[in-house]
Amino acid sequence: MSNSSCPPSGSPSQSYLAPTVASMLAWLVAVGLIWPGLAPAQSPAADSASERGGTVKVLMVGDSWAEFMWVAGSLRTIFAANGHPEILEEGGTTAISGSTAAEWAQPEFLALISDALANHPEVEVVQLTIGGNDFLAGQPGGGWHTGMSAEDFTALQAQVLGHAETVVDHILSIRPGLHVLLSQYDYTNFVDSLLPQCPGTFNDLGQPTPLQINTAATQLQDQVEAFAATRSRVTSVRFLGLMQFHFGFPDEGIEPGDLIPPGDLSRPSPLPSMFLQSDCFHLGGSGYDLIAQHLWDGFYALQLTGLLFTDGFESGDLSAWTPGR
Fold it and tell me: Residue 166 in contact with residue 105, Cβ under 8 Å?
């Protein structure tokens, strides 16, 4: 991965999501979980737009969910699979693992967005993924935890949304015609994850059951969507339960397609959907491809193909779920 994805000074807080994708891949090579050839020094998505033969229409901004998708090239893969290889994405300096909503609201992080937009004047959508680190910081880091009161959680949600609003306002102040896509998260899996970062985060969160953490994540997502609904050029697309829907729990007789989103809040995301079938938060490549396809179906197919000419996004029918896409 290019060193351009390293955070600026003032650096992200240390949470589960704090290691960069590059450092995580390096650790996986060291312990023998993947071969060195599978950990490229530079993202395949980091080629210039001219080399890729298209136009950068999407700027990816945010934390490791943005960086994982950027490194994997999930968006361009899905754009091409849906007949639009000319639509490209960029995230080399703005998809930063470990970054928080609080950090993105600071001048040095906002400047990264300003510079990226200046370098890519044809961008039409900023895909923004922030808030996960703020939420998963746990009790030591001021994030959500099982002992948090309802009043304190309400305050945390307002704080995260306030920072997100600062970022959105900054983006639209630079280029009012842009559209901001709030791309969030699916359920965690602290039940049977294997990576060594997971137990510490699980303890910091107060050892939540899937129902507890999924309920809290849903409440935060509800607030994100309520915010998006008040802004004509902001859209939020929900993923909660998407991995349960596509992967199911076949060993328990629950087949793909059985659990319609939001799925079963008392269950985690299925382990086969997670990174290396071991992670507690990040998805594997097929999981992020499913996220990208869902974003295409629910947003990009209309926003970037000339089929939508309104102020604000009018959603298509997202109830037509199709497993295995």
Answer: yes
Quick check: 57 and 89 in contact, CB under 8 A?
Answer: yes
> Per DSSP, what are the bridge partners of residue 129?
62
| pLDDT in single tens digits along all 325 residues of the chain | 233 333 333 333 334 444 445 545 544 433 333 333 333 334 545 454 546 578 999 999 999 999 999 999 999 999 999 999 999 999 999 999 999 999 999 999 999 999 999 999 999 999 999 999 999 999 999 999 999 999 999 999 999 999 999 999 999 999 999 999 999 999 999 999 989 989 999 999 999 999 999 999 999 999 999 999 999 999 999 999 999 999 999 999 999 999 999 999 999 999 999 999 999 999 999 999 999 999 999 999 999 876 433 333 333 333 333 444 3
Q: Could you give the angle at which helices 64-72 and 74-81 cross, rounded to 10 degrees?
A: 50
Residue 249 lies in a domain: yes
- Print burial letters for 206-233: b (CB count within 10 Å at least 16), e (below 16): eebebebbbebbeebbebbeebbeebeb
For residue 243, count other CB atoms closer than 10 A to its CB.
28
Distance in angstroms (rounded) separating the CA atoms of residues 181 and 300: 9
Q: Which of 13, 99, 89 is nearest to 64 (CA)?
A: 99
182, β-bridge pairs: 128, 236
The count of domains in the chain is 1
DSSP β-ladder status, 125-129 and 179-183? parallel
**With contact defined as beta carbons under 8 Å apart, do 98 and 140 qualify?**
no
The answer to whether residue 138 sits within a structural domain is: yes
Task: Say if 84 falls within a structural domain.
Answer: yes
Indicate whether 176 belongs to any domain. Answer: yes
CATH number of the domain enclosing 232: 3.40.50.1110
The boundaries of the domain holding residue 249 are: 41-303
Residue written as tokens 């909503």? 101
